[in-house]
Amino acid sequence: MKKKLIFFGTPEIAVKILGGINLNDFELIAIVTQPDKKYGRKQELKPSPVKEFAINNNIKVLQPLKVIEIFEEIKEMKPDLLLTCAYGQMIPTKILELVSGMAINVHASLLPKYRGGSPIQYALLNGDKTTGISLMQMIKEMDAGDFYVQESIDILQTDDCESLFEKLGFLGKEMVQKYLLKIVNKEILPIAQNEKLVSFAPKITSEMEKINFNLSAAAVINQIRAFAPTPGAFGIINNERYKILKARLLSEKEIFPMTLTIKRNGEVIYFDKEGFIVYTNFGMIKVLEIQRQGKTKISAGNYFVNKLKDIQIGMIFNESEAKINL
Description:
Blueprint: E1 3-9, H1 12-18, E2 26-32, E3 37-39, E4 44-46, H2 49-56, E5 61-62, H3 71-77, E6 81-85, H4 93-96, E7 103-107, H5 119-125, E8 130-137, E9 147-154, H6 161-184, H7 217-226, E10 233-237, E11 240-249, E12 263-264, E13 268-271, E14 276-279, E15 284-292, E16 297-299, H8 302-305, E17 324-325
Parallel strand pairs: 1-2, 1-6, 2-5, 6-7
Antiparallel strand pairs: 3-4, 7-8, 8-9, 10-11, 11-15, 12-17, 13-14, 14-15, 15-16
């Protein structure tokens, strides 16, 4: 007989996980997702990707402001297990107890590393070379339950937040396909996390999105990758916000003309068809794709090709914070 499953999730990565549920083994009786949110200048209500999946597949969808509000409804459905991925709320213990511990979370890190809601961004911010997916037990404490199985992938230098979400979504889908029934049948037993190795990935704040050019070039590139393409890491010139959506490290072998004056971190020093070069505390970056406040994104090479004037040599991103580069 099929096991009755309720899924909790909200963003696109959770839709991929839904695709991994084998409907020959599980009956997807309901989907729980966050309430519709207002987006854009017109502040129009927009459903989550998971809600759109539920509607398109004629699956019952619930959108409580607080998940405890639907306790009685979940209880009446008598699920055998709960499966979650990036839902956006903690599941109360009272609900977890309805399935006698068979509440499984698809977490986008190799636990105990990066407990919390932003593991993908932190892996990029910290310049990690690998990351992965953990299928784990849900308990009251966030991401602290035992894990059943983990698989890893490499993080490429070309990866950004969008591409890493995509890769981990596919990995999570494959793992749910391979392991979920075995976990439910207790063919795979849980393993305790090593509490000595715990690290956290708390919620991303708007302050973290502002690029710190007083760091090394590698750290600046990691910051850009962690928030690309959305929300986008940014710098400010002449009180205007510019999102830097794509950039690369400048090699020591690359030669270009520049003045011998003392530079400040965040200073623009050279333009060409590919983009423009910016100083950091250690090394330089080349900006390849940029979005001016209120405008569409463009190739940074347009500043050279089309002789755009809003950013020029000698201008400094985040000038009030810029340190002199010695």
